[in-house]
Sequence to fold (137 residues):
Amino acid sequence: MSLTLPSPVLRRLEQAARKAAAAAYAPYSKFRVGAAVLAGSGKIFTGCNVENASYGLCNCAERTALFAAVAAGERRIKAVAVYTRTAAPTAPCGACRQVINEFGPRALIISIGNGRKRLETTLDRLLPAAFGRKNLK
Ligand code: THU
Fold:
């Protein structure tokens, strides 16, 4: 479901994403990312990127947060906020878009950095003609 959020909820989500970046484990890229997921229940789940010496196993902040939500029993994602310590906002990578699609095909995606620029869009705009569970029926 695509939606606009009441501004206090949006602020809380963005704050949670900022705070989550502090736990980022990014010794290789030094690119620290925090994410916060607003789940169907209204609860917020957070995550950071977790890198690995075997680079291909690095996990993005968005997926860390989303998997935490699903592991807690959530099955619907309303919004995802992503924070990077850069001036320009960063949109979720292709892999994360596909993973978000599973639980929030029309989720609101908010990207923020340390500058004034922000990106607010929806998952279906970031991943048009997505492959999903409908294709397996
Ligand atoms: N990364 C994220 O956590 N989220 C994004 O949206 C883009 C990339 C991470 C993966 C890796 O740890 C580092 O940023 C550099 O790619």
